[in-house]
Specification:
By secondary structure, this protein is an alpha+beta fold. The protein has one domain (3-64). The protein is 34% helix and 9% strand. The chain has a two-stranded antiparallel sheet with strand order 1-2. The longest helix is centred in the C-terminal third of the chain and has 15 residues, at 50-64.
């Protein structure tokens, strides 16, 4: 993705602690899971290590409730 197409509010936002968070749209445009356990990963953390992946999926399920 080219920098001029990297738009705040569309591809990323800053959370209340000041961290930059990449959106689901950004991840979908990138086309793959990077394995970093990103908050909005649309790929169900497929490249994250199994132990961390289970915890991330558990947290996501709790947040959906």
């Amino acid at each position: 993705m080219k920098d001029e197409n990297f738009v705040e509010g569309i591809h990323f936002y800053f959370d209340k602690t000041g961290l930059m968070v990449l959106t689901e749209k950004y991840h979908l445009e990138r086309g793959f899971c990077c394995g970093n356990g990103c908050r909005h990963c649309p790929y169900n953390y497929e490249n994250v290590a199994d132990v961390e992946k289970r915890e991330l999926l558990r947290k996501r399920k709790l947040e959906e409730k």
